[in-house]
Amino acid sequence: MSNDHSPTSEPLLCSSCDLLMADVKPPPGHTVRCPRCGRRLHKWKTNSIEKTLAISLTGLLLYLPANFMQLLTFDILGTDVSSSLFAATLSMFNQGQYIVGILIVLCGFFLPLLLLSLIFSVSLALHKGRRRPWIARALISIHHLREWAMVDVYLIGVFVTIIKMSHMAKIQYDIGLFCFIGLVLCTIGALSAMDRRLFWSRLDPNADSPLPEPVNAVTGADAGLCLCHGCEKVVPIASQNRRCPRCGEHLHLRKKNSLSRTWALVITAVILTLPANILPIMEVDYFGVPDQSTIMDGIIYFFKEGSYGIGAIILTASILVPLFKISGLLLILLTIHFRLPGWRRHKTIMLRFIEFIGRWSMLDIFVIALLCALVRFGFLSTINAAPAVFYFAGVVVCTMLATISFDPRLLWDATSSSD
Ligand SMILES: [Zn+2]
Ligand SMILES: [Zn+2]
Fold first, then answer.
1. What is the CA(202)–ligand 2 centre distance, in A?
2. Cα-to-centroid distance, 303 and ligand 1 (Å)
3. Which CATH class is domain 48-194?
């Protein structure tokens, strides 16, 4: 069984621009990047399986206390209200926002648990030298889940809530908060300890099977090779419409219907942006006087109060990030539509940045859920979610799905001219 990172006879294909390269062996801790588009192709991590196993197990042990023990206690005029993270996760259901409630339960509770459990089971199985079909399915799921398991965004939401309430209430930090910080660190740690290429290589029954000789070929498509979307194995195009020999996914040269799906999702996001910003997103009931505010009202309030840092965070997450995502995706789609060849490397880097920031727009939704759970002081003050929450969550989900369905290699396929 191969347990090192020695170069194989299998060439490397860049998943962003389809550039064909010979396999290389980087020194420990070093990263292999695509020379054409700059994408990180592989980073060699030492003792990856054992580290991933240990960190994911720690994360799983912290999961229950992080979610079910008291997170924070707010005290306004001697009245205490405390909440666990799980109660905050469910708070949207009490507000009648069922779809947003389901989204928060998925991204903040269920998918992070599924992700950690899969990482733990896979690393345990590989540590024991097992090679079962379920491991391949689990590895593909881990790859998809890392976008949607949002405990890190949720934790920043907790910090924003603390800063937001710090001048109105006395805040007590409970044990659940410290367990939650540990859980987030373990989730990030387990994902970064995973050496995806090593994990997959342990499952490869025919790693050294001969592939067509690439003679003067620049891209995988030129050389008759395609990249499996599930496990990134390089497979001859002759196998197209068949399944990957390693993970069993259907093989396609490019993602299917990528452009039309991305267009549809971006247009939906543009339409949803209007109600998300015009309608009120939150209703604060202070001493019996209800006051509704839109996303922009909330930001202006912080700047007026002198809380510039938190105002800037909410402005970035709720306005700038969605705006940048939508305009960036539209720009990329239009340049492909009109076959404009320039700046392909820059556009690819921008797309990776859009992918990276996509999930952080959920921040405001998590903050509202936390406030609804923690600010329940009866006549004194309560906070409720308002209709824009639904539309705003729609914008976040549509732009995330748009970046996932877009195939960046289409940028490089559109023309054959150089940068
Ligand atoms: Zn590339
Ligand atoms: Zn595969």
1. 13
2. 42
3. mainly alpha
